Amino acid sequence: MNAWPVVLVHGTRTSATQWDRQLPSLRAAGHTSHAIDLPGHGTRRAEPFELDTAIEAIAAAVREAAPQRVHLIGSSLGGMLAIHAAARGIDHLGSLTVCGGAVQPGRASARLYGRMIELTDHLPGISAEGRGPLLTWILGPEGARAYLRGGRADASVVRPTMEALASLDLLDDLRQIRVPVTFLHGRYDQLRMQEIEFSAAAPRGRLEVLPYGNHMVNLNRPHRFNADLLRVLARAERDRGGREEGLGP
């Protein structure tokens, strides 16, 4: 049985290149991988960010990766949008993995978090383009290169992305998702505050807190993260295979 294709969705202000450090491992394990740019980011930086357009970009990428079952993986903003996209129904979706996206922002908290993201441009050692020793210290040289390779979205994209997240009911979305949902969080991830509630809301939800890593765990601890991610994907494929043969619960 061939490994399922993978669609990867990045976080706020980065791009598809956030997943550069995962692609070789996914490829070696037999997965074809499709890392997309959301509106307002990467190759689509000239576009305004709009929720419906972002959700359609995710759904379209899954459709294009079919006809096999497809793994959908999202980080931070991308993880929360992936939850909403999956809840709206995507043919051939086989599993969902969310990294750093287990929090339901309200309007006030979304604005506050968005403001914090915007203020990173003014921190010592980091420029509006994201370059500088601080990002390298947080992500390591290779992680910083991957984060920035596709360009860093302008701070103006932050407000519409946060407003979009605040408009969602992610817990209700999770209740609608019938495929396996795994929350795969670094130990020091700041957006795992509701991870128990989120994983319990999904009918086939599971929580895995890794004993390492921060919010950008895929960039700053890629080798360990890649092994854990592949394990999660393989488990989803085995689970689906058992169900299709009538062996599952």
The helicity comes to 40-55%
Q: Give, in spatial order, the strands making up the sheet with the most strands.
A: 2-1-3-4-5-6
Structural class: alpha/beta
Tell me, briefly, the overall form: globular
| Gyration radius over CA | 17 Å
> What is the succession of H and E elements?
EHEHEHEHHHHEHEHH
Task: Pick out the low-confidence regions.
Answer: 245-249
Mean pLDDT: 91
Regarding quaternary structure, what we see is: single chain
Strand content: 5-15%
Domain AB hydrolase-1: 6-227
Pfam family, one: Abhydrolase_6
GO molecular function: hydrolase activity
InterPro entries: AB_hydrolase_1, AB_hydrolase_fold, AB_hydrolase_sf
What would your notes on this structure say?
By secondary structure, this protein is of the alpha/beta class. It has ten helices and six strands, in the order E-H-E-H-E-H-E-H-H-H-H-E-H-E-H-H. It has helices at residues 23-28, 51-65, 77-87, 107-119, 133-149, 158-166, 170-175, 195-201, 217-220, 222-244; strands at residues 6-9, 33-36, 70-75, 93-99, 181-185, 205-209. The chain has a six-stranded parallel β-sheet with strand order 2-1-3-4-5-6, with helices on both faces. The chain is globular.
